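pls design
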């Protein structure tokens, strides 16, 4: 990496110094799937690899990826493989029903640290993809989740390329440089 290259964070900042609005403010850790009972409790599908965080949360943000409202948690408990949350201001089944389908999120700054060579999806979307030979393939536009492995959708000069997220293909990820280096396998492109 050359010192004169701006970091991904610097490239996402506007002239006023604020981070580009495409950068997520929240990370989803669950989704409200239904009311539970008649006293406003909601059943939450767990979407995080760190489910124990529900045991200590005091506030969650409900809404979509870029806009969510804070809600105070007054109680939480586990029921089978879901978390049941009681939220301040959600007093009955009708109120809980209105929350159905909303993401349960936390501020991005509160995301748990991941082991080396593991990344959150928002860290990978937008990375430039370059082959080990130096050919620019484009940018990661989305991630497909399959039973076998994740697949990165890259849009660039060759059109759409689907890259499996496997060690034989992904050479390295450099978040500071905003780049993923890949080794193309025969028949992949």
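designed seq:
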């Amino acid at each position: 990496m050359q010192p004169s290259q701006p970091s991904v964070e610097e490239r996402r900042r506007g002239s006023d110094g604020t981070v580009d609005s495409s950068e997520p403010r929240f990370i989803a850790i669950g989704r409200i799937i239904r009311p539970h009972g008649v006293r406003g409790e909601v059943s939450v599908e767990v979407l995080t690899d760190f489910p124990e965080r529900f045991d200590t949360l005091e506030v969650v943000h409900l809404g979509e990826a870029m806009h969510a409202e804070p809600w105070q948690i007054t109680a939480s408990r586990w029921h089978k493989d879901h978390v049941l949350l009681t939220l301040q201001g959600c007093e009955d089944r009708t109120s809980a029903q209105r929350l159905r389908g909303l993401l349960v999120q936390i501020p991005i700054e509160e995301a748990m640290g991941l082991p080396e060579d593991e990344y959150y999806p928002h860290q990978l979307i937008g990375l430039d993809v370059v082959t080990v030979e130096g050919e620019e393939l484009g940018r990661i536009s989305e991630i497909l989740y399959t039973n076998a492995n994740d697949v990165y959708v890259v849009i660039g000069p060759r059109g759409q390329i689907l890259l499996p997220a496997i060690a034989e293909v992904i050479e390295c990820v450099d978040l500071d440089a905003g780049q993923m280096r890949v080794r193309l396998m025969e028949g992949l492109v």
